[in-house]
Amino acid sequence: MIELEEVGYQINGKWLVRDINLIIKNGMLWGFVGPNGAGKSTLLRLISGELIPTTGEIRFFGKPISSFEPKELARLRAYLQQKRDINFPFTALEIVLFGRYPYLNGTKETGCDIAIAHKALRQVEADVFAERLYPTLSGGEASRVDVARILAQAPGLFLLDEPTNHLDPKHQVQIFNLCKSICDQGKTVITAIHDLNLASMYADQLLILKNGVSVACGPPKSVLTQNMLTETYGVSFNILPHPDGYPCVMPNLNIL
């Protein structure tokens, strides 16, 4: 379980997020949505431990996140950043093996680690890239390898910042189906996402942020409303029922 109590983060006198209170239970897929600059990535970085809150506290299983050693924290959570530029000539397999670092204790990867990395590549249909140099991959191919890296890390909490960047519809659905299967194992996925329809289809809970503040929190059906989205994004929306039961979000042409 992850708990955020009155969490805020300020830099150069500006609050990037403020007064965030959340309880995130195991086995749930959470989506952070909101316009550019709303604080989604900052909040993920705070939960990952990369940033230290200016106010409030973040707890994993009742313990402050600051009390965990870095390697212990790396075994508990994996964080996929939005910007993932790697220019060194590592192969895709070597990139995925970075996810095994928290378990190596200064030793070389074992056959078991390599098998875990290959399995992770297969899960995202990237095993054919194993020996390709990472800088030669397309944006979508590299994104799938990046997801394989955090799968190989085998944490209980996955923090994903725009995991479907550069992906075609098939692989977007593949990644989120994979996220749901991770949650079915009792693990937790928190993702920042701009695609409101993917968020509606897959998230158990959504947090809508605007200017660093929570403006709505709950299941997609309860928070993806015309009034809430119009107020949040500054553009009008139509909300249509999808045959599978989730709200289908359609922005209108008129910017308010």
Structural class, from helix and strand content?
Answer: alpha/beta
Shape, per Cα inertia axes: globular
The amount of helix comes to 25-40%
The neighbouring-strand order within the major sheet is 6-7-8-3-9-10
Number of strands: 12
**Cα radius of gyration in angstroms:** 19 Å
Continuous helix count: 9
Q: What do these coordinates show?
A:
It is a single chain. With 256 residues, the protein is an alpha/beta fold. It has helices spanning 40-48, 70-76, 92-97, 111-123, 139-153, 169-184, 196-202, 220-223, 226-233; strands at 2-11, 14-24, 29-33, 55-60, 63-64, 77-80, 157-161, 188-192, 205-210, 213-218, 235-241, 247-255. β11 (235-241) and β12 (247-255) form a beta hairpin. α4 (111-123) crosses α5. The radius of gyration is 19 Å and the shape is globular. 38% of the residues are buried.
Feature tags:
alpha/beta; six-stranded mixed β-sheet; four-stranded antiparallel β-sheet; 9 helices; globular
Short description:
By secondary structure, the chain is α/β, with parallel strands linked by helices. It has helices at residues 40-48, 70-76, 92-97, 111-123, 139-153, 169-184, 196-202, 220-223, 226-233, and strands at residues 2-11, 14-24, 29-33, 55-60, 63-64, 77-80, 157-161, 188-192, 205-210, 213-218, 235-241, 247-255.
